[in-house]
Amino acid sequence: MTRPGGRSARVQRGVHDAVRALQAEGTAALTVPQIAARAGVTPSTIYRRWGDLADLLADVALERLQPESEPADTGSFGTDLLAWTEQYVDEMASPQGRGVLRDVAVPQGPACACGQLNRTQLELLRQRALGRGEQVPELEHLINAIVAPVAYRILFTADELDAEFARDLVENALAGQARTGSST
Amino acid sequence: MTRPGGRSARVQRGVHDAVRALQAEGTAALTVPQIAARAGVTPSTIYRRWGDLADLLADVALERLQPESEPADTGSFGTDLLAWTEQYVDEMASPQGRGVLRDVAVPQGPACACGQLNRTQLELLRQRALGRGEQVPELEHLINAIVAPVAYRILFTADELDAEFARDLVENALAGQARTGSST
DNA sequence: GCTGCAAAAGCAAATGCTTTGCGTTAGCAT
DNA sequence: ATGCTAACGCAAAGCATTTGCTTTTGCAGC
Predict the structure, then answer these.
(1) Is the CB of residue A5 inside 7 Å of nucleic acid strand C?
(2) Where are the alpha helices (DSSP H) in chain B?
């Protein structure tokens, strides 16, 4: 039986906080014993709950990617999408953002969850637009045109990402309107 | 002074071979001492030359990504691009391909080199087409429309990638023709 | 509330990976 | 041939990781 409350929750929060604190201090290569000491637990606790360092980092990174608020409703799909993309690019452009995406991409499980997160957000924008009677591209088209290029730059290049890059992506995503659909 | 020939080269080949052999045998989590033993060198040699396991795996992965031949010339940019994309998707779709991309994405240096590799290939297709007098999209547009979506699926989803996916990407990349340029 | 069960944490020993200092080998230049 | 030194081997030291066992503590049933 799983046991979500009380001490377990306290330990989880403590460990997550420790990771974030150490990352914030710019600790280059953090280790499990280091995190454990900071969190006031023994290393074996971390190994047993998370498996290894990569899994733990992915877990923390995934939590950071969780949007703290709904995407803004700016009146039309184009401006909604632009606002969302700008925020996404902005979050990922910082060294911390790069680190987060890198951390989450390494293990198998969490990476899928990360992709799902973006899908949920974009689908919300789509549904909102469909509610207004707008024509919008399919979800997968948006993933290909917006999310994938950003992730690719972060992981495979040293390029600077800025608001102009975001603007170009959105423009391009809406340009063709080759593939527009009406629902899921 | 660097020293590329003789024993160094022999060691490098031996270690690379050992990694590939162990990966081919389906060894789940390979370790440096394991690789060293297989290659007939001491672990410290590997640590000094490659730094750590991730860097070594990235190095081997990068070598695998090296195209063994020029992309086929099929007569037109559209068919060239389709052939290239199909081959790219095919290589990456296998479990080994996924592993390779994952390995290469982790450290900073090699990831850029990997991106450069794709750029070189696609730029070759572009120049060939320009030589024929064709109109072709900008390189960065191709990266966004073809390479990024494939990499994204590999790293962030468990989706099956197939020839149809490749076809859709190419179709989409050439559909708008919004951004066509004439050279670098 | 109290009690019993078992999940999760602590502790410490054992294992195994990584680092490092130093002696040796062997490319490469003269 | 000889000298120089990058790169390797070896072995010891330093840590990270695993594991068996004990203790704590959340939760369910009285």
Answers:
(1) no
(2) 7-24, 32-39, 43-50, 53-65, 77-93, 95-105, 108-131, 139-142, 148-156, 163-175
